[in-house]
Design a protein that fits this description.
Elements lengths: L10 H13 L2 H10 L9 E5 L4 H12 L3 E5 L8 H9 L4 E3 L6 H12 L5 E4 L3 H9 L9 E4 L2 H12 L7 E3 L4 H24 L7 E5 L3 H12 L3 E5 L3 H9 L3 E2 L2 H7 L2 E4 L9 H6 L4 E5 L9 H7 E6 L4 E6 L4 E5 L5 H4 L6 H21 L7 E2 L3 H14 L9 H8 L6
Helix pairs in contact: 1-3, 1-4, 2-3, 2-15, 3-15, 8-9, 8-15, 15-16
């Protein structure tokens, strides 16, 4: 067994945490029970690049239970939970290459170690694995059926690759499933991003001016949760439709140039770079806190912070104080990396249950295709979304109505009017 984890003595603790998550992921576990006797993924090699959390550990267990051969790495240098990585290596016999706090070089070394399995299917979060796969495919003897992509940033990158005519194998955009982005991105990030900020700072959100950059699904979730804790939320946007939604949802809308002067807490959620730049940083008041909830650490310009400040000081494990030339102090959480995993445990298991059920079913679809799909980015079928939502409702003891035959005919027809 080939693996590279930080400390194998943490394996038992990681197993306990994975067991806990499994109890709270009933939809994914139901899929395991449905397919584990058939072993439909037997002989299928899967390379995974997701945040190595207890929830990811459950997904790995389920894929392995239905026959898949797996190799796994983290998709962010600060998001691996070392005890989970150790448990995957020791208790689940997975080739896992993941440690928290690695360098950029080590990060890509891990990705290339995973590629060594010569996968038939890739599971990615952010598209780094998929892009590296494309670099390694020339002359490769691997048979690629396709891949999946977990997050908005990755889907954007892969659609750009497709538009450039350079996408070499099909990708299922798991992020675009309603049972993913309408729940994981909104409720998951909305809660876990604030959890990360609170763990890193223990601030009181009530009464604070919280600037949320971006009002997509992630920004919407964070804004609502912050407001629910008593914060005054100010949204910045470049999209007029998103800005209008934020205003009609009851939030203030402003340009960053003015928000930067009054914000107490800044949270970026855009997927774009330099959302907070040097000019914004120079205007911030004493004690401002900066956190990023996007996938990559480019939304808050770290070079700009360094240029505007002197003598950084580590306040705690997750937070660095920068003394600005203006005399103010600002605080950056988690090196500007995604705060919910850099400073907390990521999304609750209950929402990852639906996201990873989508991953599982998408992998099954790719395995069944045996490489027959064209190299395009595909969405999730509505039938799959409804299947997962219904299973989630049932796991919560909830039941909904069904259309009668007459109602169905009415909705499908056009003859009945006033």
């Amino acid at each position: 067994m080939n693996y590279h984890v930080k400390d194998t003595s943490l394996a038992d603790e990681g197993k306990k945490r994975m067991d806990w998550a499994e109890v709270h992921m009933p939809v994914l576990v139901a899929l395991k029970h449905k397919y584990e006797s058939e072993k439909p993924l037997k002989g299928t090699k899967i390379a995974g690049c997701l945040h190595v959390t207890k929830e990811t550990g459950v997904l790995v267990r389920v894929l392995q239970s239905v026959g898949a051969e797996l190799s796994w790495c983290g998709c962010n240098p600060l998001s691996t939970q070392d005890d989970v990585a150790a448990s995957l290596a020791i208790h689940e016999n997975i080739s896992v290459f993941a440690r928290r706090g690695i360098s950029t070089k080590e990060y890509y070394d891990d990705i290339n170690s995973v590629i060594g399995i010569r996968p038939n299917i890739t599971i990615d979060d952010g598209a780094d694995l998929t892009v590296e796969m494309h670099k390694n495919m020339n002359g490769s003897k691997s048979v690629i059926y396709g891949g999946t992509e977990e997050t908005t940033t990755g889907v954007v990158r892969l659609r750009a690759l497709q538009n450039a005519g350079k996408l070499k194998y099909p990708i299922i955009a798991v992020n675009d499933a309603e049972t993913k982005h309408d729940f994981d991105n909104v409720y998951g990030t909305g809660q876990s991003a604030l959890d990360g900020i609170i763990r890193a700072t223990n601030i009181l959100f009530a009464g604070k001016n919280v600037v949320v950059a971006g009002y997509g699904h992630v920004g919407k979730g964070i804004a609502k949760r912050a407001a629910g804790m008593g914060a005054n939320v100010i949204v910045t946007e470049v999209d007029p439709i998103a800005a209008l939604k934020a205003k009609l949802d009851g939030f203030s809308v402003a340009q960053m140039i003015s928000a930067s002067e009054i914000g107490d807490v800044f949270i970026t959620t855009t997927g774009c770079k330099d959302v907070i730049d040097g000019g914004d940083i120079s205007r911030m008041k004493d004690g401002a806190i900066l956190a990023n909830a996007g996938h990559f650490n480019v939304e808050i310009s770290i070079p700009a912070i360094e240029a505007e400040s002197t003598s950084p000081r580590q306040v705690n494990e997750h937070t660095v104080q920068y003394n600005l030339k203006s005399g103010s102090r600002i605080y950056l959480i988690g090196e500007g990396r995604l705060v919910n995993l850099a400073a907390a445990e990521g999304h609750p298991s209950e929402v990852m249950d639906m996201s990873f059920a989508n991953q599982f079913l998408s992998v099954m679809k790719l395995a069944e295709s045996k490489g027959s799909l064209k190299p395009l980015v595909y969405g999730i079928d509505t039938s799959q979304d409804k299947q997962i939502a219904l299973a989630k409702l049932e796991s919560m003891g909830l039941h909904i109505d069904a259309l009668t035959d007459d109602q169905r005919l009415y909705l499908e027809g056009f003859s009945e009017g006033t």
